[in-house]
Write a structure and sequence with these properties.
Its EC number is 1.1.1.169. The chain has 318 residues and is α/β, with parallel strands linked by helices. Helices cover 44% and strands 19% of the residues.
Length: 318
């Protein structure tokens, strides 16, 4: 059974954000000849308008020169909006993109955490999205310059788990652009599994001010990771998501290939940007409270990162 039956093909794409995720995947779409427009901030606008969107990749360097806008009002309609911004940027975008959604645009979410889809659907109160998970090791080296080190995969699917024509069309679009993409009937499980890494290694990297090798080489730190994932498993189960039995050791083992890299939260913190702590550990705390499940590890990680953010702001909450 298909849960949707879109009447038009995905011909026109809007990528919101030209950072480490949106910049890389959007550039691949642009290079393949797809009609892609980027909504970007002023610094990125100036850099990309001047020198193009530059990708320095382990798979080969390239530069594209896509159309750019600084306001959604500059575009009439699109078939697909790829939301490649941080989770905390979502609320401020919803009103802006509402006209495009009303005209039939589908949203593809690529945020970390498990709360973005809930917030979007609560705002629009209609089935308008396909959920996605991005697996990529990359960084925004400078406005308009993406450094890509490893992977570059997107998993996507309907929240319901049922077959989705829209998801299939997006999958085909990504695949045609040379992006490794997978359709899944368990997209929320995939998002929770990624959360096991993001809600442990991300905050620890900020607290320790070090690449994740320090965590992997320390038995006490790995015990914090294990306890954090045990708590995530419990909260996920209470919400009807059964994570794989070996998720703890699988998460740790898979991390060895990234041992010398900094996490995205670390990059954001060091660059003076907000972190996604509210949408990772903060969200877990709130879900745990609602379900009556204690999450002491995440309370500690959350408190420490929030404290460091406060310290960075001169003793005032950011």
């Amino acid at each position: 059974m298909s849960i949707d039956n879109p009447q038009k093909q995905l011909k026109k794409v809007l990528v919101i954000g030209a950072g480490a995720v949106g910049g890389y995947f959007g550039a691949l779409l642009c290079r393949s000849g797809i009609d892609v427009t980027f909504l970007v901030r002023p610094k990125s606008y100036r850099a990309i308008a001047g020198d193009g969107l530059q990708i320095k990749s382990v798979n080969g360097d390239f530069t594209v020169h896509p159309p750019l806008i600084q306001s959604v009002s500059q575009i009439d309609s699109v078939d697909l909006i790829i939301l490649a911004v941080k989770a905390y940027d979502i609320p401020s975008l919803l009103e802006e993109i509402a006209p495009l959604v009303e005209r039939g645009a589908t949203l593809l979410t690529l945020q970390n955490g498990v709360d973005s889809e809930e917030r979007i659907l609560s705002y629009f109160k209609r089935d308008c999205l396909v959920a996605g998970v991005a697996y990529i090791t990359s960084r925004l080296a400078a406005p308009g310059l993406i450094e890509h080190y490893r992977r570059g995969i997107i998993s996507l699917g309907a929240l319901s788990g049922e077959k989705s024509d829209r998801a299939a069309q997006i999958h085909q679009l990504l695949s045609n652009a040379g992006i490794t993409a997978y359709l899944t009937g368990q997209i929320m499980k995939a998002k929770w599994e990624k959360l096991c890494w993001n809600a442990t290694f991300n905050p620890l990297s900020v607290i320790l001010d070090h690449p994740i090798s320090l965590i992997l080489d320390s038995a006490p730190l790995l015990e914090i990771v294990r306890q954090g994932i045990i708590e995530i498993i419990a909260v996920a189960a209470a919400e009807g998501i059964a994570l794989k039995t070996n998720i703890i050791e699988e998460t740790i083992t898979a991390s060895n290939q990234f041992r010398e890299y900094h996490t995205s939260m670390y990059e954001d913190f060091k660059n003076g940007k907000p972190t996604e702590i509210e949408h990772l550990n903060g969200d877990l705390i709130r879900r745990g409270e609602k379900r009556g499940i204690p999450v002491p590890t995440h309370r500690a990680l959350y408190g420490l990162v929030k404290g460091l953010e406060m310290k960075r702001a001169g003793g005032k909450p950011e």
